[in-house]
Write a structure and sequence with these properties.
By secondary structure, the protein is mainly alpha-helical. The protein has 12 helices and no strands. The protein has one domain (26-289).
């Protein structure tokens, strides 16, 4: 059996040189420690390119990122806009200003779920076994997944803003808009570590979707994304106040419309840092040790 390529070998060369029947013992933390940072970055870049090429070959994988912002914007604006807009002191136009920043927060969470299902499918198809047989940083595989998902999130956000402007959304603060997009990306990337962990520990993609649904639904509808929490019962209002999606939606509204920002901003950043600090090591460990 031929020797493995050196850690500085490019990923494409390693893919050609690696044997097909390598045992899981190759994926150890000691192997990661021998790989320099520059090699980690290069491997991540190569894997990002691989994932982007896969999207180009399978454009249907972009349907959720393209259609989700269109369908949800039109649905909530034209079905609920009149009634909820009145509770906000206006009408449909008032609700447009309310719902579009909220959908930006929701979109990051929904797209984060897809990284878990895709990760699980890669495991079941044997792609991840191939990656783990190579002398590349185990974290590089996960960071590449997150990077590509952030690209999809930016595309979906762009479509959301275009549709929002078409239905009457007014961008009052352009720097605030870019700040809101960045904040959504930070929180979305934190959630991706949760779904990457689910993608490793669950047996199939359907299980990842089911678990994601159980997590997402209470967080989405028990938040201030779709309606102000003032009319909710007391126990639900308390849940809404501590819901990270409420903090993100409120911060996005404040940034884009010159409203209050500080509380929602710092709460979102705190949630993002906490989720990443807890779940990123778990996801990397589970990926290394999965057999």
């Amino acid at each position: 059996m031929s020797a493995h390529p050196s850690p500085t070998t490019t990923l494409n060369e390693a893919l050609r040189a690696a044997p097909s029947d390598v045992t899981a013992t190759v994926a150890t933390s000691k192997a990661d420690a021998r790989i320099p940072l520059r090699a980690h970055v290069r491997h991540t870049g190569a894997l990002v390119r691989r994932n982007l090429l896969w999207i180009r070959q399978d454009p249907e994988s972009m349907f959720d990122a393209i259609l989700f912002p269109v369908i949800f914007t039109l649905l909530f604006v034209y079905v609920f806009g009149g009634s909820i807009g009145q509770s906000l002191g206006g009408g449909q136009q008032q609700y447009v200003q309310y719902i579009v920043p909220g959908l930006m927060a929701m979109m990051g969470m929904n797209l984060a779920q897809s990284v878990g299902t895709g990760f699980n499918q890669d495991f079941n198809s044997g792609v991840m076994d191939r990656f783990r047989s190579l002398p590349i940083g185990r974290g590089s595989v996960l960071f590449a997944k997150i990077s590509v998902e952030l690209v999809r999130m930016l595309i979906a956000t762009t479509i959301l803003m275009v549709v929002g402007v078409l239905v009457g959304f007014e961008i009052e603060n352009w720097p605030g808009l870019f700040a809101a997009v960045g904040l959504s990306a930070v929180f979305g990337s934190a959630l991706m570590w949760v779904f990457l962990t689910l993608g490793v520990v669950m047996k199939n993609a359907q299980s990842v979707q089911a678990m994601g649904f159980l997590v997402l639904m209470p967080l989405q509808f028990g938040s201030s994304i779709f309606a102000p929490p003032g009319t909710m019962p007391g126990w639900l209002r308390t849940f809404t106040e501590y819901n990270p999606l409420s903090a993100l939606a409120d911060a996005a509204r404040g940034l884009m419309t010159h409203g209050p920002v500080a509380h929602g901003l710092w709460l979102t950043l705190a949630w993002s840092a906490g989720i990443t600090a807890v779940m990123a090591p778990v996801a990397i460990h589970k990926f290394r040790t999965k057999t």
